[in-house]
Amino acid sequence: MTDNLEKPAILLTSAGAKIPMLQAAREAWLRLFPQGEIIAGDSQQLVVSKAFADSFWQMPVTAQSNKAELRRGCLERNIKAILPSRDAELMFWAENKDYFAEAGVEVIVSTSAGIARCLDKLAFADFGRQLHLPFIPTSLHLDDISAKQFVVKERFGAGSKSIGLAMTKAQAIEHARLLQAPIYQPMQSGFEISVDAWLNNDGSVKGVVLRRRDKVVAGESQITTTFTDTAVTLKVSYILEQLQLSGPVVMQAIIDSKGLPHIIECNSRFGGASTLSIAAGLDSLYWSFLSAMRPDIKLPDFNPAEGQIRQLRYSMDTYQYDSDI
What we know:
D-amino Acid Aminotransferase, Chain A, domain 1, alpha/beta, Rossmann fold, six-stranded antiparallel sheet, 3 domains
């Protein structure tokens, strides 16, 4: 039935300046619906993505009081699927997934239980400890952490933007005063990686791509390179399958001198640099759209690319003239 719909649309929420994600979503959606469109959605009017989408929707904020208006807006724009891109909105979409599905709008989002666990870094660490998984110890109290150097970050939200790394005890105490809900971790030596993965609706892992975070700016990988490690892949796949997630996710970890992973956190959504993993064979957005719109169709196999691929992310300029302003 969806094949006969005129220009079915996919909505990228909190689109902001996420142009690579917008373009990757468009390419995946058009493989499914060649006449389809991509809509950039954001609560702000002046956003860069507006110039790169087929259309733009200045959306109401994702609050329960606005869910009827949001669903009505989706129907008016022929939106058939929603791809949330910001941590703070994931719980809203998860809790209202069925509400939108009743209107024929599928939301690409994990379960609320899995999302809640990932949004709370303390709960995430406690979950790993209870299952004897290699999660980095985390506490509300600095004295609970035995280390020479410490990490201090926000318990909720994008903690990487205000994180304190390799701090002495005195520095950690001082830095914590700048945060709303600080948590403490030991500084783990090693190199940092991201684990891009896609999970089936039953929580099983379909595919994993490992990438080094070679250069990180404001919490995002500016330079990142794929690599292969069978033991790490097996370990992180097992961990991911305990988290009650589905669809695209990105997990952060430190690999120590023995090659063992130490899990930092997990974002239950498509990541900013996860477009690299699409190039590496993890066709996560297409799988997400296909499983949402045509759940009876068998998904294509995961065929990882051979060799390493490096992604370099950079800013660029574009211009608008009278007719487009």
